[in-house]
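New to this. Please check both lines:
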Amino acid sequence: MGSYEDAVRTLEVELRGVEQAFRDLTHEQWQTPTKLQPLDETQPHWTLFELAGHFDISIGLTVMLMAEPQPGQVGRDRTSFFIFPRSEVAPVVYDYAYKMVEGKTPEQMPDVLHETFTKTTEGARAMAPDTVGPGYYALMRLDEFVPSRVVEAVVHGLDITDAIGRESIATPEGTALTAAILDDLLARKTVAGRPTDLADDMAWVRAASGRAEHADPRLPLIG
């Protein structure tokens, strides 16, 4: 799966692309709805403004882990982080994005994200890979949490570009790491082996994350 240093470098490049994508948005584009479907279909889709709020907390969880290192039994890894009851977690995640942008303007969000992203990658480089801390659901090692943030960056990066009709900003390295984690997730949740028509990593990431429809009943794996 590559070294920890490779994972941190990949995350840094992905987050740089995400930050720039947000900086490039026009004022009108910030209000563009994403294609993410809320669990409660009566609720509105996040706009790119709320998606930026989600990025702030989802990547910022790394900073929280590093701020509270503690001994204890590790309960999750890069793959099992994405195994959870969606009916319980999705509403909390949905609402928290709105809370993260309260009192902020779209023009402020790129700088907010820059600060969070910088603290994440600089902190990850400064700390030992085997640092253990809170990983939202359970204790996790830092070298397992960082790759899970690459998945967040790649998948939600698609949400930015899909909303405004741009090409994906994901790097080959970020896409490959995300695809590998989703391969492992498929094996843990159901029957291993991605569909033969999804050999391309980006096609696989899109289908496995629900960013593209696919007839395989095992999909999507994450939303």
Notes: The chain has seven helices and two strands. The beta strands are 132-134, 139-141.
